[in-house]
Amino acid sequence: MPNELGPQLRAWRGTRGKSQLDLSLDTGISQRQISFIESGRSTPGRQNVLRLAEALDVPFRERNSLLLAAGYAPIYAEGNFDDREMQGLTKALKRMLRQHEPFPAVVMDRYWNVVMTNDATPRFFGHFIDMAARPTPRNLLHLMLDPEGMRPFIPDWEQTAKSLLGRVFRESVGRIIDAQTKALIDRLLAYPDVDADWKTSVAADNTPMIPLSFVKDRQLLSFFSLVTTVGTAQMITAQELRVECMFPLDEATELHYAELMNAAQ
After folding, report:
1. How far is it, in rounded angstroms, from Cα 5 to Cα 54?
2. Beta-strand pair 242-248/219-229
3. Angstrom distance (rounded) from CA 58 to CA 50
């Protein structure tokens, strides 16, 4: 309903730390008009809703909510990987994953569910655990924090868990925690020895990347990740995707990794 737009817009302003004047300067919409919209005294045109959303860096999924609240139809489609509009992106993602061989690379949605991998990813993690026994869609955060997942093989597990939980907040789409992300965090915090304070922890060092280490047959394997997003996304699904590619942190890891991957399963 239109009267729902005001509270949503006000909440987004608060999230972005913008005053009505700031938003007015960013959009060219008068501060008086913005005040009327937030109080429910005025309903903006669809184009102005989109201008306000753009200025507040509102993700596509939530822009649809603003449009609905103002009485307009959503304009951002969700899309599936097999949709015609997504085929070009899907092919590009598969190409990226293939080109990252022989190292692991995954495509994840906004909730860290793995939607696509290269061949190296299940082969690598399969050396540690039975990946076929993991529920699908496989979730990277559950894989790392679950005592029956990769957790026993991570030597600095507590620091890794802190870093991962911190990433949930830093890398959430639009830098917001929606209801489904909050539910995911609650499930992660339910694991043994996971502290609720970790989700707001900040790394103590100044290293340019956060390493992720595993131990296999007493050999330490240290990696770091590069994360890529779709910079020109026009659909909800595309905007929420990210590609995470793992790289060896040192020459010893590169050597041990090759030995591990070449060993018979």
Report:
1. 15
2. antiparallel
3. 9
The span from the CA of 60 to the CA of 68, in Å, is 12
Query: Residue 200: its pLDDT value, please?
Result: 61
| DSSP conformational letter for 174 | G
Average pLDDT over all residues of the chain: 88
One-letter amino acid at 230 equals V
User: 15, exposed or middle or buried, with CB in 10 Å at 0-12, 13-18, 19+?
Assistant: middle
Detail the DSSP E strand segments found in the chain.
105-108, 114-117, 212-216, 219-229, 242-248
The rounded radius of gyration (Å) of the Cα atoms in the chain is 22
List Cα–Cα distances, 62 to 17, 70, 179, 191, in angstroms: 18, 13, 12, 30
Confidence (pLDDT) at 86: 82
pLDDT at 203: 46
Q: Which amino acid is at 206?
A: N
Helix orientation angle between 60-69 and 5-16, rounded to the nearest 10 degrees: 150
Record the tokens describing residue 133, joined without a space: 């026994």
